[in-house]
Amino acid sequence: MREDIPLLSRWIVRAFQKYWRLARGLDLFVEACVVDEAGCTLMVQNESGSTWELPAGLVHNGENLETALRRVLRERAGIEVNGNPALSFFYAGAKDRHIGVYRVRHWRRVTEPSARKVRFFPFHSLPPNIAAQTAERIRRSVQDRIAPEV
Predict the structure, then answer these.
(1) Are 82 and 47 within 8 A, CB to CB?
(2) Between 20 and 30 A from 110 (CA), which of 18, 20, 78, 87?
(3) Using one digit for the tens of pLDDT, what is the confidence trace for 54-69?
(4) CA separation for the pair 137, 101 (Å, rounded)
(5) Does the domain spanning 25-149 belong to CATH 3.40.50.10300?
(6) Cβ-based burial of 35 (10 A; exposed 0-12, middle 13-18, buried ≥19)
(7) DSSP-assigned letters across all residues of 79-109
(8) Most confident of 7-21, 53-67, 101-115, 136-150
(9) What is the torsional sign of CA 110, 112, 116, 118?
(10) Dmax over Cα atoms in the chain, in whole Å?
């Protein structure tokens, strides 16, 4: 067997890795854990109406995370963020998605929400049809804990 084949295969693997990193890229999203004075968390129904989730959206080109967060909350929930929201943590979602989770405690309603249902749920009685990962992200944000502390 030729000795240069393993060396050549390592170069090919590295070349493909670099190509895919540049060609595929990553999708960056923001997600908000909006909490009211009573400690309830804002949730929106997904498009099919089958489950509840935290308000989230894609970060557009030229936007930073905080600008995207403000846009998403205005569009999906009809609220405006007052002050500076706190970035709680990042996590990797499915399909090369990276999501920054913000905790928003200071806000005000400015318009009626979009067609989706929007409700505040107490932390101890979240809707039964939410994903376990969503409940965990809410818990981390409400308790002001970062991912490594859990």
Answers:
(1) no
(2) 87
(3) 999 999 988 999 999 9
(4) 8
(5) no
(6) buried
(7) EEE-S--EEEEEEE-STTEEEEEEEE-SEEE
(8) 53-67
(9) positive
(10) 71
Would you state the structure tokens that stand for residue 52, as one six-digit string?
């509840």
CA 25 to chain centre: 17
Distance of alpha carbon 130 from alpha carbon 87, whole angstroms? 22
Provide the pLDDT confidence category of residue 26 given band limits of 50, 70 and 90. confident
Q: Are 107 and 34 in contact (CB under 8 A)?
A: yes
Domain ranges for the chain, please list them.
25-149
Q: How far apart are CA 109 and CA 69, in angstroms?
A: 15
